[in-house]
């Protein structure tokens, strides 16, 4: 298959990217579906964690916890 520089519609590009990723990861469809399921199960916890972390970050400026970590 020759690679030609003709513009492809975005959906096509997305599909090709996915295929490239699949080939790189050498994962089967079922493995990817399992991963998806796991990701969906953890989203609730992650949402809560992300919320907590964002609050924590907003009350602690970046410089503060950077210098704390490095000085000790």
What are the SSEs and their pairings?
Blueprint: H1 10-25, H2 29-59, H3 62-71
Describe this structure in words.
Residues 1-51 are annotated as: Disordered. Residues 16-48 have a biased composition (Basic and acidic residues). Residues 1-10 have a biased composition (Pro residues). It is a single chain. By secondary structure, the protein is an all-alpha fold. It has 3 helices and no strands. The chain has a domain at 20-56. The longest helix is centred in the middle third of the chain and has 31 residues, at 29-59.
Our count of helices gives: 3
Look at the structure and give the mean pLDDT. 64
What's the main sheet like? none
How far do the termini sit from each other? Answer: 58 Å
Helical residue percent?
A: over 70%
Choose one word for the global shape.
Answer: elongated
Portion in beta strands: under 5%
Class derived from helix and strand content: mainly alpha
Low-pLDDT stretches: none
Give the strand tally: 0
In N-to-C order, the SSE pattern is HHH
Oligomer: single chain
Summarize this, please?
Residues 1-10 have a biased composition (Pro residues). This protein is mainly alpha-helical and 72 residues long.
Give keywords:
72 residues; mainly alpha
């Amino acid at each position: 298959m020759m690679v030609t520089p003709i513009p492809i519609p975005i959906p096509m590009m997305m599909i090709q990217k996915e295929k490239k990723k699949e080939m790189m990861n050498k994962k089967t469809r079922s493995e990817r579906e399992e991963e998806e399921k796991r990701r969906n199960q953890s989203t609730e916890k992650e949402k809560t964690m992300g919320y907590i972390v964002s609050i924590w970050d907003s009350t602690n400026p970046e410089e503060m916890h950077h210098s704390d970590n490095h000085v000790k």
